[in-house]
Please model this.
Amino acid sequence: MFMTAEVRTVTIGRQRLRVAIRPARNEPGRPPRVPFLLVNGIGAHLDLLEPFVAALDPAVEVIRFDPPGIGGSPPPGRPYWISGLCRLIARMLSELGYDQVDVLGISWGGGIAQHFAAFQRARCRRLVLVATATGTMMLPARPSVLAHLLTPRRYLDREYLQRVAGNIYGGLARIDTEEIAAAMHDSNRAGLSRGYLYQLAASAGWTSVPFLPLLRQHTLILAGDDDPIIPLANARLMNLLIPNARLHVYHGGHLGLVTEAAELAPVVDAFLAAPLSSWRLVMASSGRTALTDGDFYLIEQMLDPAGRRLLLRVREFMEKSVQPVINHYWTREEFPYDLVVPGLRELGIAGQAYSGYGCPGGGNLLDGMIAMELARVDSSIATFFGVHSGLAMGSIYLCGSEEQKQRWLPEMARLEKIGAFGLTEPEVGSGAAGGLTTTARRDGDEWVLDGQKKWIGNATFADYVVIWARSLEDQQVKGFVVPAGTPGFAAAKMRDKIALRVVQNATITLDGVRVPESHRLQLANSFRDTAAVLRMTRAGVAWMATGCARGAYEHALAYARQRQQFGRPIAGFQLVQDLLVRMLANVTSSACLCARLSALQQDGLAEDHHSALAKAFCTVRMREAVGWARELLGGNGILLENHVGRFVADSEAIYSYEGTREINTLIVGRAITGTSAFV
Model:
């Protein structure tokens, strides 16, 4: 199988190790590179990483070895600990004549690499951690996945591996099990089961959490967005704990170094070759780097530890569960209800800004940053959540009586009931303040609603729809909670949208819909009360716009780092860096503005014009940023598989809903001049 390496046996004391070394091919005048040591996953022989080695810069000397009892290395006489294996590796490097190396560890080997970097510090210059975690103190895989890892059967039984590969490894293994089986079984030197069990025993009870903040090596963390063995949240945690780390998330599974070798090898090469001056370190206390993260000014650090942990859980859910499938639903104009609603329910984030009534009460900043985090992966999911948690629950929270809040909010906070918000009409958009045509007529203890609503998100499956209608008694706007299935209520799905295609917008027809007085929001007596809801939710839309821009920026940055033209990554070209910095500036300025608005909300100081300015500014900056991201990707920017095109399309809807730029500008203009320019 080997095309690139010289294989030999090295004896260290009583232990023989099978070692493969790919010699460096140095070009004249080019300084030699630091040798690169690869530490493989549990049960994996060194041959498995041949595709990755072949894709690396030939100027780098690459060292691989089979751990004791694996592949071509005979088992040791007794079990060993991770610390003992690290000492054995250090002695092996000395025997081979290497004083210092860069180290890459994948999966189980990532734990070895972390320990080696911490306790053999002088021998490790830079560290690459791939599809790995922190040992016993990690977010575990599902039990059904872990069960397959307890024995080496997948290495010994090819048919078994083909049956389970997709569920274990994710990524391309879900599609092409034959490629995975060939990589793991062709030229297989699986060794004895005893070697596999020794590897399991070596890591039992081990964790790197206490010493990760002490690592001084510059560290690259590679994590797949569809890795069933190592959920993505583990990479996020390591990125927080390791002072000089940066995280690169790739689209793939646990075996990305095998299946995505052509994509990931240039990322690793660029990291290993980069001069120290290219690393921009952040405060040691934060453990964060902004190199691949759109949170450039570390606004997340404004949250308390519990808030940061919750945000990390939201990120993990969106990146692991939503991002791999969202394009499928976007194309088909479908909403992944059975995925999204249970997932968000488990996170417990609905009604985050509200206190009491079963709501979390996490505050406005956390609520806004959750909206940004959702939109960072997909704006449709953020919109669904904003309609339910912001507009629908917010209408009840701000305009409902105490009894109404107790009746409806707890079950909505648990996402047992889903809400929608009906204000816009077929012929009434920006003029809703004075021109609603949907009417409400009092008839004894009931109200009769007639009219139409349009663009109503969630309406095709919502349990409660908040309908705003003009009372025929006093001509004032009032709010009503209409349960699904009420006679005379019909919601027809809108089709053929070019933006937010996952959101289930509907045209609602109200034909003599009767609701009791107890369903009229008791504190909603004019459009001023409706505007109070919009004041709150416009801030959420500003956060969403920031998230949409940030998602496009992060995808564009990742693309620029791996896309090569003229023999090097395009991230090294001046015009590309100019686009990236423009995007980042828009994301950062928007996030800072939103954070200050959240503080005003928390203190009860936010007014209509504050939310209006944020919505107008952030959506304009979003529109610019997603356009620059599309420009950076060139023709690839219009391919859905690269995600940026979806952000471009979805941004158009965010730009317009909850008040156009022009309407929000007039709200701010009225506040600063004291003169209304509304017609």
